[in-house]
């Protein structure tokens, strides 16, 4: 080795040492931010533990203590339907009908201004992290800054989701959904929890029955027959908030989503072939391969005098290529089916979801105020009592009436409805600028659960329910 070559190698080694020192120094400088970035990921370890528990169960059909984990709070009427029912049943006289319609118009005016303010604040918070922003680009945010902004957005969404009567899906429910696959779901997916920083679901409108068909293209076929739709548990609306390590906050809402199909809504997923389909495909390959070998291989052995080892090698290569092609085609069909399903079930995304949530919260606010006013008018005169007794009486009466009318067991938040009614009836102004009622933001009222919901970007998140 010449002196010149030795000096060149030494210079290259020193350069690499400087690069290594620079990388290590930048890593050490970023070390204080690591707990903030990795904290939510550690929280998902409890989800992984619950998933392991469900894998050890034999054929679970629903999450543990499902009746206690999920309480339906969605009023399954539109505002117009509810107004017609209340007029028909409680306000049949012309004077009462006019009074209720005027009250409904007053509620619309007050809540419109109130939720417009809430939506404006949410949009201002969300704008720096909006992936679909059409305005000029702002200075890029660091990952800790982006996570902090996402935390603020999710915290601000909590009372809006609660007022929209979405119920949070607990960590135990999510573990069940990620592990259990319904036999009717031809498309099955798998996820890697290590890719996610946080994920949270909210839902409303629980139903048990045959799911609505999307289109004829979405019907399930199993080789020679069509599957018969089975009754299963699903939700009319589901809201998802998730964040991957290499992505951004994803806000989406979906309709008619089965409980066992929640994982199909997540980003960063992979299509997997079910065990039944793998067995059928392998059986078909073996039968066709044996038939080809008997009919063609024997002729090759006798006529062309080819060695047995070489023939088996060619046959194994042929079957390997054929199996790869068949499984690839099956994956492509399933990926297309998944894209088709998500196309028809998706209702709103990201910034548009904030507007949809504000409209739904306003609608639920109005329905609660109408129910409170109509039922309090029916209360016997002289039946006083404390506010707690009034709230309990109102809750019982409304829940029984909704069960009679719809057949759905709905948990009615009477205390919140009375608060809405008091704020509205105390206001006399009709225009927002002067004397407009200041409605207090609704408090988050999550139903009691047996465990802690999946953690979002903040350890004290208390999520509520979805679109």
UniProtKB/TrEMBL annotation:
Tagged with keyword Signal: yes
Residues annotated as signal peptide: 1-25
Membrane-traversing stretches: 280-300, 306-324
Region (Disordered): 426-467
Keywords: Membrane, Phosphoprotein, Signal, Transmembrane, Transmembrane helix
Pfam families given in the database record: DUF3754 (PF12576)
Annotated protein name in UniProt: Transmembrane protein 143
Provenance organism: Pipistrellus nathusii (Nathusius' pipistrelle)
């Amino acid at each position: 080795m010449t002196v010149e070559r030795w000096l060149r190698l030494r210079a290259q080694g020193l350069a690499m040492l400087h690069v290594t020192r620079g990388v290590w120094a930048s890593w050490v400088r970023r070390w204080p931010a690591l707990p903030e970035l990795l904290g939510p990921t550690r929280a998902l370890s409890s989800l992984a533990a619950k998933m392991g528990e469900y894998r050890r169960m034999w054929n679970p059909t629903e999450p543990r203590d499902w009746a206690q984990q999920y309480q339906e709070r969605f009023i399954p009427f539109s505002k117009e339907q509810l107004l017609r029912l209340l007029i028909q049943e409680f306000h049949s006289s012309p004077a009462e009908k006019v009074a209720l319609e005027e009250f409904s118009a007053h509620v619309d005016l007050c809540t419109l201004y109130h939720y417009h303010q809430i939506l404006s604040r949410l949009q201002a918070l969300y704008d720096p992290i909006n992936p679909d922003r059409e305005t000029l680009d702002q200075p890029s945010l660091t990952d800790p800054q982006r996570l902090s902004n996402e935390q603020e957005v999710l915290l601000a969404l909590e009372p809006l989701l609660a007022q929209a009567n979405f119920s949070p899906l607990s960590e135990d429910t999510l573990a069940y959904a990620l592990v259990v696959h319904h036999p009717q779901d031809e498309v099955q997916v798998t996820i890697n929890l290590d890719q996610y920083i946080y994920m949270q679901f909210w839902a409303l409108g629980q139903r048990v029955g045959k799911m609505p068909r999307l289109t004829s293209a979405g019907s399930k076929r199993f080789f020679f027959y069509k599957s018969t739709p089975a009754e299963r548990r699903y939700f009319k609306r589901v809201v998802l908030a998730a964040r991957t390590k290499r992505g951004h906050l994803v806000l989406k809402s979906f309709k008619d989503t089965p409980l066992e199909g929640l994982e199909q809504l997540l980003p960063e997923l992979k299509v997997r072939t079910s065990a039944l389909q793998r067995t059928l495909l392998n059986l078909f390959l073996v039968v066709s391969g044996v038939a080809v070998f008997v009919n063609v291989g024997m002729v090759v052995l006798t006529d062309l005098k080819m060695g047995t080892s070489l023939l088996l090698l060619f046959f194994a290569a042929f079957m390997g290529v054929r199996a790869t092609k068949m499984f690839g085609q099956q994956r492509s069909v399933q990926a297309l089916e998944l894209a088709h399903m998500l196309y028809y079930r998706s209702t709103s995304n990201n910034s548009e979801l904030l507007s949809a949530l504000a409209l739904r919260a306003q609608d639920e606010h109005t329905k609660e105020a109408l129910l409170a006013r109509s039922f309090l008018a029916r209360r016997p005169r002289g039946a006083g009592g404390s506010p707690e007794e009034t709230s309990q009486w109102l809750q019982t009466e409304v829940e029984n009436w909704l069960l009679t009318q719809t057949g759905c067991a709905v948990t009615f938040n009477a205390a919140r409805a009375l608060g809405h009614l008091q704020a509205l009836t105390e206001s006399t102004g009709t225009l927002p600028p002067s004397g407009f009622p200041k409605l207090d933001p609704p408090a988050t009222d999550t139903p009691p659960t047996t465990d802690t919901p999946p953690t979002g970007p903040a350890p004290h998140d208390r999520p509520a329910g979805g679109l």
